[in-house]
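Appendix B, example 12.
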Amino acid sequence: MDCLIDIIFVLDQSASVGSNNFELMRSFVSGLIDRMDIHESNTRVGLVTYSVGVRSAFNLGDHSSVSSLKSAISSIHYYGGYRDTAAALRHVRTVMLTSAAGDRPRHPNVMVVFTNGQSQDTAATVVSIR
């Protein structure tokens, strides 16, 4: 079954998550990837990590196979630091969801955020999703 969708996973790397829980998140996302129809013309996946800074691990158009995505996910390292959810959501909206990063304007976008707590700045987080 075709699933024409662009999905961006956003993983919290803050100190409160810890390296063990970060590994659980990576493993969970990798397991989800196994169940998706990953292909340039079907499901495409991007991934962002955040703590003190925000990093695009890979863009929507970077990987067109399950094995390639899983390899990229396994290479992501845990960093620690404080949680800036607002910056992560802003990054997804302004950087990841652009045609330059592989966003397809006629396909639905889904963002899945993995975090273990409240943003450092709740007001800015609410504003960043609008």
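Residues 72 and 122 are 31 Å apart (CA to CA). The chain has a mean pLDDT of 88.
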